[in-house]
Amino acid sequence: MALIEARNLRKTYGALRAVHDVSFAVERGEVVAFLGPNGAGKTTTMKLLAGYLRADAGAASIAGHDVAAAPIEAKRHLGYSPEGAPAYGEMTVREFLRFAADLRGLAEPAERVRATLDLCRLTDVAAQNIDTLSKGYRMRVGFAQAVIHDPAALILDEPTDGLDPNQKHEVRRILKEMASRKAVIVSTHLLEEVGELCTRVIVIAKGELRCDEPRDRFLARGADLNQVFRSLTA
Amino acid sequence: MSSPAEATPSARPAGRAAFAAIVRREFAGYFRTPLAYVFLAVFNAFAMSLAFFVGNLYEAGTANLDRFFLYHPWLWAFLAPAAGARLWAEERRQGTLELLLTWPVTVWQAALGKFLAAWLFLACALLVTLPIAFTVGYLGRPDWGVIACGYVGSLLCAGACLGLAALASAVTRSQVIAFVTGFLACFVLVLLGYGVFDGLLVGVLSDETVDAVRRLGLWRNLEPFTLGIFDVPAAGYFLSLAFAGLGLSTLVVDRR
């Protein structure tokens, strides 16, 4: 069973076709790089999968639960970090993660918070207000709330955006560690992430799926990945 | 460093856990900044000033609080939108609305949790005014039932104003716009049945129409409570406004 599935998803904003007939399925153990230029429909597709937006047509499911028909069940199995990793800035990191754990109704929430702080290397800043953290830490807090319940499916919208090389390495390392047990979609502008992190590549442009293939086949398209990207999204 | 152990949900029903978590976070959120204490102080100061200096509570020489509650529609019209402006506007501004609505919680649970937390906060503002009741008790022999009824009416009135504030907050990402819009909506309800505005209508509209307009106002519905009468239609009026605002705000937030 695919843990993340999009079936003929469509979403329009007035005359703008944001997502048009997008279909794919992500199995356990796959880390999918979601590539595309700005405004291509990546974020909209992710929001449709996460249940934040409603599709005009088509369907999305998480761990076999239809996002529209059984949203609560679908969201229980999903960890989602929106673009920019928004969080309640006036809360401390620990309070925020505790809120996420309580809201998800997790057993032993204090232990879950401790383990997640440890996993995401946030223990040192656990008592700090999120507003006072650097961007790198804030992105990690966003990541932490997405994995606190150890979900089967993980959707991360530009999780390494704005991070320094060390921080990027850290996020990728944690993702790799989890990858075998989860289905993961990571949107990114960084083509180097494809080779380093992902097992499969989906390219979307103008709301349409332009490419969906294993990483190695994508990398074999050419030595200059920027050129490959431009030709696929033109 | 290892991955956390497989997460298991608690035995507690998930919906209730989510609802309780939202109420706790929102209520505590008021006290994270000094603004809450400023709010409580301002409410208390205005409530007392209006009762003593405008309502001449002391000079009236009667052991009741009807002159204290008389001005509560004005206070709530101003302060309920101040407390409610953050409910949704802040979520939109911070981008956390997307986070909240992709967690396993329904929009209804989130909306009701936020509303209840804000209403509890407004109840705290009322609690802060209790010394005036004890003062009246010290100076005379008030009917405590009448005073309690007045407080219940005031709390219901606060809920009605908060419903409108929640709706105003749901349609914008600016707390300032949410506050101004919420205040204007509540202000209209204060005016309906208020002396000066009433005077403008008398003579222009029939007596029946003027009376119908009065019945739509906050004051007319609060009045029986200040006299010790638990007026069921008036309670229904306040709760209808509260739930209409709450319901519409939920619909607005749910349009995605």
Q: How are the SSEs ordered, and which strands pair?
A:
The complex is a heterodimer of chains A (234) and B (256).
Chain A: E1 4-13, E2 16-26, E3 31-35, H1 42-50, E4 57-62, E5 65-66, H2 71-76, E6 78-81, H3 93-103, H4 109-119, H5 135-147, E7 153-157, H6 165-179, E8 183-187, H7 192-197, E9 200-205, E10 208-214, H8 215-219, H9 225-233
Chain B: H1 14-30, H2 35-54, H3 57-60, H4 66-69, H5 72-84, H6 86-94, H7 96-100, H8 107-128, H9 130-139, H10 144-170, H11 175-191, H12 195-201, H13 207-215, H14 218-226, H15 232-254
Helix pairs in contact in B: 1-8, 2-5, 2-8, 5-10, 5-11, 8-10, 8-15, 10-11, 10-14, 10-15, 14-15
Summarize the structure.
The complex is a heterodimer of chains A (234) and B (256). Chain A is built from 9 helices and 10 strands.
CATH class of the largest domain in chain A: Alpha Beta
Mean pLDDT across all residues of chain B, rounded?
89
Q: Assign an overall shape of chain B.
A: globular
- Report the span from N to C terminus of chain B: 39 Å
- The rounded distance between the terminal residues' Cα atoms of chain A is 33 Å
What is the percentage of strand-forming residues of chain B? under 5%
Order of helices and strands of chain B: HHHHHHHHHHHHHHH
Largest sheet of chain B: none
CATH superfamily of the largest domain in chain A: P-loop containing nucleotide triphosphate hydrolases
Q: What coarse outline of chain A follows from CA principal-axis ratios? A: globular
Total domains of chain A, how many? 2
Radius of gyration over C-alpha positions of chain A, nearest whole angstrom: 17 Å
Characterization of the model:
The complex is a heterodimer of chains A (234) and B (256). With 234 residues, chain A is α/β, with parallel strands linked by helices. Chain A has two domains: 156 residues, P-loop containing nucleotide triphosphate hydrolases (Rossmann fold), CATH 3.40.50.300; 64 residues, no CATH class. Chain A has nine helices and ten strands. In chain A, strands 6-7-8-3-9-10 form a six-stranded mixed sheet, with helices on both faces. Chain A is globular. In chain A, 53% of the residues are buried. The mean pLDDT of chain A is 93. Chain B has 256 residues and is mainly α. Chain B has one domain. In chain B, 77% of the residues lie in helices and 0% in strands. The N terminus of chain B is likely disordered. Classes of the chains: A alpha/beta (234), B mainly alpha (256). At the A-B interface, α2, α3 and α4 of A face α1 and α7 of B.
